[in-house]
Amino acid sequence: MTYFKKYPKILITFLGIPLLLFFVLIRLWWFGLILATLVLLIFLIQEIYESINSIFLRELVKYGITISGVFLIVISIRVFVFDFYRIPTGSMKGTLFEKDIILVNKLAYGPKIPTSLKEVPWLNLLTIFTRQSEKTNTVEEKRLSGYSKIHRGDVFVFEIDIWNNQIEDFTEEVMVKRCVGLPGDDFSIVDGEIFNNGSSFLSNSEVRERYSVQILDVNAFKSKIENILGKEKNIRQDGTEKNLQITCTKKQMIELSRLASVDNIDLVIDTPETFEYLLAKKVNPSWTLDNMGPFLIPKEGLSIPLNYKTVALYRRILNRYEGVKLKVKNGKYFINSNEVTDYTFKNNYYFAMGDNRKESYDSRVYGFIPEKNIIAKANLAFSKKNGVNIL
Questions:
Q1: N or C: less crowded end of the chain, CB within 10 Å?
Q2: Helix 29-51 with 55-80: angle, nearest 10 deg
Q3: Long-range pairs of 110-113 with CB within 8 A, sequence gap ≥ 24
Q4: Residue 128's pLDDT is what?
């Protein structure tokens, strides 16, 4: 140990090589390379610092390097490692609550490389007084490798940069939802239940649905309800005080059904007239938030025939994210002015939904989420209501 204390470079090399190999194995080679570069830079700065004879210059260099170093490290951590976001809406209520703070892990899926100063925390302040054009697809966005793929059930943060102006008062730019569909999935929703490739999706226990509840004894029901639903209960009358609509989890619904004051409970299924905005409603006018599909979630390399239904379903992402111009003339389909009968996707897309199912603007409304728009996986939530939760 005395030898290592005398020669710290040898110690760092001795420990650094296995660490670098570990990062390579988990597909974070770039992260190991950054750490190695940082260590070399520290040794270089130390050599320069020790070569300075002037005490004043030494102090100036020390404080300058310290301040700039801390600033650079904090920015790098937020860009490449983790960051914090505030929950914008109540669409994940049960799991996450509005105004909760979440920590997102950028190493999981791999961080996106910033394409401009606007995308770099703090440095984006330098662009305040400069004229910025709207975001375009002229600069190809790239993502570094991560140690994990996106899985069904993950809660992730993503940019919502399209269709906002089609929904009144919907102005969010960053959303937090749960991934319920992967690229290539044969996806459908039947009476509120999600199916992927014919198999039922195991929903999170905090998923909230709306139930129609018929009451026998109103006073007896009121005396028990807060113990089951808590103070933030979501109850509204459905005609009379003995007919209610209650938004709650499945576990809470089961507890309600056991009350002697409750006559009957049914899941509320939306009708086609319930919701004004919906993904590709032209495909099937009978689609609702609770009954939709089946359809394929676009995947890189997936080919689809072009017809009335597929064009209605995928036209937005073709024109926006696939970098092509799709036009329909006299029943024929043209991509970049060339007549075609099918199309092969260039990118992967995902389908996400809020856990607060009946009160969520999600992929059922604004459609498929391109992989490049996904920012990071949510790992921790900091809530005044529930404290610190692992997601």
A1: N
A2: 170
A3: 110/143, 110/144, 110/145, 110/146, 111/79, 111/80, 111/81, 111/143, 111/144, 111/146, 111/376, 112/141, 112/142, 112/143, 112/144, 112/372, 112/375, 113/141, 113/142, 113/143, 113/144
A4: 64
Is pTM, for the whole model, over 0.85?
yes
- Cβ density class 140-175: b for 16+ within 10 Å, e for less: eeeebebeeebebebbbbbbbebbeeeeeeeeeeeb
**Residue 147 neighbours by CB under 8 Å, 6+ apart:** 26, 27, 28, 107, 108
φ, ψ for residue 207, nearest 5 deg? -60, 135
- Say which residue, 36 or 357, is predicted with more confidence: 357
- What is the arithmetic mean of pLDDT over 333-345? 93
CA distances from 373 to 46, 60, 133, 136, 194 (A): 41, 43, 19, 13, 23
CA distance 380 to 102: 6
Contact 288, 273 (CB under 8 A): no
> Measured between alpha carbons, how far is 223 from 203 in angstroms, rounded to an integer?
30
